[in-house]
Amino acid sequence: MRVLIVDDHPIIVSGCAAMLAGEGDIDVVDARDAETGLAVFVAQKPDVTVVDIGLPGVSGFELTRRILAADPQARIVVFSMNDDPIFAARAIQMGAKGYVTKNDDPYLLLTAVREVASGGVFLMPKIANQLAFEKSGASASPLSALTARELEILRMLGRGLGTAEIADATQVSYKTIANSCSIMKRKLGARTPMELMRIALEHKLT
Question: Which of 44, 89, 105, 182 sits between 20 and 30 A of 174, alpha carbons compared?
Fold first, then answer.
């Protein structure tokens, strides 16, 4: 089995690669950004692709979109620092087959890779329980009203990027990003871009 890891943190990549390769039946290739990740995906045709949400520039959400556009059958596990269940929900809605956070047992990633490679879907029990709890109407993340694209834009705002920089990184127009920011302000009760940035930082989206 071939696994592609797209993550910009060398220590995380080397640790995950060593764990996966140690299984004996897994070959690992890696990339440090979305553009390279897509090129490696097309060239190597991995059985499973592990994508970090917080990539520099183009996010893991956008890379997931691009990979699935290139191959609708692609099997993707999203790998993130964020354990807010809304991110897992958006990832699965986009077509990812798994969601694992970096804060949990590293061997959960191995479990996710094998489950997804066999055609299954993997969510950590904690995330799955939180999603079920929110669907019951008992609680909801303030980010639950946002689309995956809006979450991506909010993350970039949290990193200090301006509207023009976000438009360039996501390859959409300035007007589209400005409109998305206006919609997010309405959804989140924010009045200014600075308030959107504060919300992003509070939810550790960066």
Answer: 89
